[in-house]
């Protein structure tokens, strides 16, 4: 094997690909990046740490010639057709045993299809979720690999080197068969949507109560020093301080309230319904991004249904209630996402190890938080836990904030402050902890109008009644 050959190739030198490649180089791997755009290749080489081995090329065949065998090529390109296009252009250039990794946010069903297609050609294909954004990719992301385990062993030293670390433990582990890596990343993003929505509702309530951006900064900063410690709370504190460079305003106040999305939150909701597993906080977060797009209608509705409610209460008490409700609903968001992974692992035959998933999420990723330490210990005690709400320690954390959560949600309802995801978390909780739900009545209705039959609580079997004939 020639020493002049490179260890690793990257296709797509955008936000993630460029930074992940530079991260690999910083850890001693020689790397080559491909982008059609020559300017991106020059920029890549110019931004490499001095002394590292980084080369940018604009011909794919040149990159493949430069790689050691078996070749290891990752792509970080937009999900969908670009991934298939890259595979099609790589195939004539690769040999049996080479490894292709899709590190983007691909839908797991696309990954399943590609694994099968490439297995026939004896090319190893892995779908790997990467989280941490631009900074995480550069300095240490959370990495969620799934697929071909022998290919994983091939790239494992490199992934362990570049991943975030919690203590000495790298935030990467083999997370299951075929599409498992992308499935876990999809659910990670669903939880990300939920927590971001919950934080934005907390912001809305505190803003309604009159807090300035400076005060919001201080509140979120202090929360990040306590049990709400998390990446998303931390960056939220920073956001409130950012001044606009075009006006005298704080930047957050001049940003349009129409939220964008690239699809992973919606996929989580859609796939939860396929299983089915209930993830209503995630569903609500997706729906609220949709509602945010109804700007013109919301402007009209705000005139039609205007509210004169103003805050008059104890602000410190309210801040504590918002804190506790955010903590409660954040736990519920993780619980729903993890319950979805538990079910998907079995139903879709992916063998997703939940203790490893929560461990990998402890560092580097967008949803990292101190709560993941609690969940890691819960799953280490009971790897087959169907829902973390059934763990004693998690239950005591939930119960410690339950009263304040109820008070806060009552406050939000009375004041007319939108808090749909906070409310969804409590509604799910109250249903989940119900020994008997009112769904016996739904069964009766279904049988009444459609002869759909029902089961009884006292006698086994299936029953139908000719309703209303007494
Ligand atoms: N940004 C983020 O925070 C995160 C993104 N992701 C995922 O990672 C993937 C990449 O995202 P990101 O880096 O942000 O995206 P960017 O848009 O920044 O970069 C995408 C890169 O892919 C290249 N590209 C597009 N189509 C092709 C193609 N057919 N063949 C070769 N190259 C192509 C683009 O080149 P050119 O511009 O020259 O067309 C560009 O360099 C996506 O799946 C995204 O969802 C995952 C985690 C976090
Ligand atoms: O994967 C990510 C972080 O983990 C990406 O940032 C993701 O694309 C964000 O999703 P959206 O654009 O839908 O908000």
TrEMBL record:
Domain (6-phosphogluconate dehydrogenase C-terminal) ranges: 181-468
InterPro entries according to UniProt: 6-PGluconate_DH-like_C_sf, 6PGD_dom2, 6PGDH_C, 6PGDH_Gnd/GntZ, 6PGDH_NADP-bd, 6PGdom_BS, NAD(P)-bd_dom_sf, Pgluconate_DH
Gene source species: Dyadobacter pollutisoli
Keywords, ordered alphabetically: Gluconate utilization, NADP, Oxidoreductase, Pentose shunt
Domain of life of the native organism: Bacteria
Function in brief: Catalyzes the oxidative decarboxylation of 6-phosphogluconate to ribulose 5-phosphate and CO(2), with concomitant reduction of NADP to NADPH.
Binding locations of substrate: 105, 131-133, 188-189, 193, 262, 289, 446, 452
Pfam families: 6PGD, NAD_binding_2
Gene: gndA
Pathway: Carbohydrate degradation; pentose phosphate pathway; D-ribulose 5-phosphate from D-glucose 6-phosphate (oxidative stage): step 3/3
Annotated family: Belongs to the 6-phosphogluconate dehydrogenase family.
Quaternary state and interactors: Homodimer.
Reactions catalysed: 6-phospho-D-gluconate + NADP(+) = D-ribulose 5-phosphate + CO2 + NADPH
Active-site residues per Swiss-Prot or TrEMBL entry: 185 (proton acceptor), 192 (proton donor)
Protein name, entry field: 6-phosphogluconate dehydrogenase, decarboxylating
Gene3D superfamilies tied to this protein: 6-Phosphogluconate Dehydrogenase, domain 3, N-(1-d-carboxylethyl)-l-norvaline Dehydrogenase, domain 2, NAD(P)-binding Rossmann-like Domain
């Amino acid at each position: 094997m020639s020493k002049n050959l490179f260890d690793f190739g990257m296709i797509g030198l955008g936000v993630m690909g460029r930074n992940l490649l530079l991260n690999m180089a910083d850890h001693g791997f020689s790397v080559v990046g491909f982008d059609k755009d020559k300017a991106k290749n020059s920029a890549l080489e110019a931004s490499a740490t001095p002394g590292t081995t980084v080369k940018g090329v604009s011909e794919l065949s040149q990159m493949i010639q430069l790689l050691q065998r078996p070749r290891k090529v990752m792509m970080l390109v937009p999900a969908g057709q670009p991934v298939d296009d890259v595979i099609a252009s790589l195939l004539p250039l690769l040999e049996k045993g080479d490894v292709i990794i899709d590190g983007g946010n691909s839908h797991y069903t696309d990954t399943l299809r590609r694994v099968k297609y490439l297995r026939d050609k004896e090319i190893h294909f892995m779908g790997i979720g990467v989280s941490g954004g631009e900074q995480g990719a550069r300095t240490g992301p959370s990495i969620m690999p799934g697929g071909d385990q022998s290919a994983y062993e091939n790239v494992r030293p490199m992934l362990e080197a570049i991943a975030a670390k919690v203590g000495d433990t790298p935030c990467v582990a083999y997370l299951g068969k075929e599409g498992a890596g992308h499935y876990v990343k999809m659910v990670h993003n669903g939880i990300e949507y939920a927590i971001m929505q919950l934080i934005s509702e907390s912001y809305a309530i505190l803003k309604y109560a009159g807090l300035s951006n400076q005060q919001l900064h201080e509140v979120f900063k202090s929360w990040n020093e306590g049990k709400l410690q998390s990446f998303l709370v931390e960056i939220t504190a920073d956001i409130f301080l950012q001044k606009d460079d075009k006006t005298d305003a704080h930047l957050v106040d001049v940003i349009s309230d129409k939220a964008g999305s690239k699809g992973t939150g919606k996929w989580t909701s859609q796939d939860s319904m396929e299983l089915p597993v209930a993830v209503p906080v995630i569903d609500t977060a997706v729906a609220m991004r949709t509602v945010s797009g109804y700007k013109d209608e919301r402007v009209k509705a705000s005139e039609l249904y205007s509210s004169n409610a103003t805050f008059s209460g104890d602000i410190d008490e309210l801040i504590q209630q918002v804190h506790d409700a955010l903590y409660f609903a954040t736990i519920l968001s993780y619980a729903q996402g993890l319950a979805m992974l538990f079910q998907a692992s079995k139903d879709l035959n992916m063998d997703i190890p939940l203790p490893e998933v929560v461990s990998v999420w402890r560092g580097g990723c967008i949803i990292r938080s101190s709560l993941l330490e609690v969940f890691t210990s819960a799953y280490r005690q009971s790897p087959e836990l169907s829902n973390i709400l059934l763990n004693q320690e998690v239950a005591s954390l939930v119960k410690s904030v339950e009263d304040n959560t109820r008070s806060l949600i009552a406050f939000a309802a009375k004041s007319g402050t939108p808090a749909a995801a906070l409310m969804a978390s409590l509604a799910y909780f109250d249903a989940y902890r119900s020994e008997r739900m009112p769904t016996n009545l739904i069964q009766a209705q279904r049988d009444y109008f459609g002869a759909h039959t029902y089961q009884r609580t006292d006698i086994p079997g299936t029953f139908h009644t000719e309703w209303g004939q007494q």
